[in-house]
Amino acid sequence: MLRWLWLLSALLSVQAPAEELLLRTAQQSGALVKYDPDGGPNRPGICMEVLQAMQRIDPGLQFTGMDQQVPLKRVERLMADGLIDVFFCLLKSPEREKLWRYLPVPLYTIRHVVVQRTDDPRPLDTLAELVVASRSKPVLVMRGTALTRRLLQAGVAIAEVGSEREALQMLVMNRADIIYGQDINLMRHISDARLGGRMKIGRTVFFEEHQYLALRADLPVAHEERLTQALRRLEREGVLRALSEKYR
Asked: What does UniProt give as the signal peptide span (predicted)?
């Protein structure tokens, strides 16, 4: 009798609807690989697809604020001030880890690479070579990203720009010679601008980093555990890997 009662209790717990958890978030503007408002339902951006996949496996998870498109610096302020609960997807840095938390499951990997014009013969395989090259023209890097810290620590002269599109335009106009950025973003913008014949991505991967789901500092531990369980299931089932390959 006790065994049947235990089985009935287990069955009811499996069939019970998941408790609703409403979390505030936002989209990052200008980051088409992450969030693409014009990508349609089949290609809305890798971070949007991770969010949607989490909702499919845990229907009680609900995210508000997806109509907000804000620049990365604004996202950071919202996170630090506790005005949003979670953000998909964010690189780690020592400064950021003091202000909020990260879930342990990587969403996807980015590689630090350089872009040059195809007629630029210089091999740029080390940070030391970037330091020398930057003495004539600063290396372009996207404003507000964690990539700037690595270049500055190495002594590379940089100029921050608002987007990969702006950086590529500067290379086309010979106002700059080198872009340092994330491979997945740069490949997307080179393809969109049809610059494949005029731009080349360097052969060296300077560094690899993971994008994570970030949480406001005081988000309840129970919410963190629930989000982590959903992500671990996406990882086990190969969903995160498939999405990374789709957008690369």
From this structure: 1-18
How far from each other are the two terminal CA atoms of the chain, in whole angstroms?
A: 56
DSSP 80-115: HTTSSSEEEEEE--HHHHTTEEE-SS--EEEEEEEE
Token pair in block for residue 40: 């349609």
Angle at 221 between CA 52 and CA 9, to 5 degrees: 80
pLDDT one digit per residue (tens) for the chain, 248 residues: 434 434 434 444 444 456 999 999 999 998 899 999 888 999 999 999 999 999 999 999 999 999 889 998 899 999 999 999 999 999 998 889 999 999 999 999 999 999 999 999 999 999 999 999 999 999 999 987 888 988 999 999 999 998 899 999 999 999 999 999 999 999 999 999 999 999 999 999 999 999 999 999 999 999 999 999 999 999 999 999 999 999 98
Place of tokens 């959903």: 230
29: which 2 tokens?
Answer: 């503007």
Instruction: Return the amino acid letter for 199.
Output: M
* Global confidence as pTM: 0.82
CATH of segment(s) 20-108+210-247? 3.40.190.10
Contact in structure between 120 and 145 (CB atoms under 8 Å): no
User: Domain map of the chain by residue range?
Assistant: 20-108+210-247, 109-208
Other CB atoms closer than 10 Å to residue 5's CB: what's the count?
A: 9
Of 1.40.20.10, 3.90.1150.10, 3.40.190.10, 3.60.21.10, the CATH number of 109-208 is 3.40.190.10
Name residue 149's amino acid. Answer: R
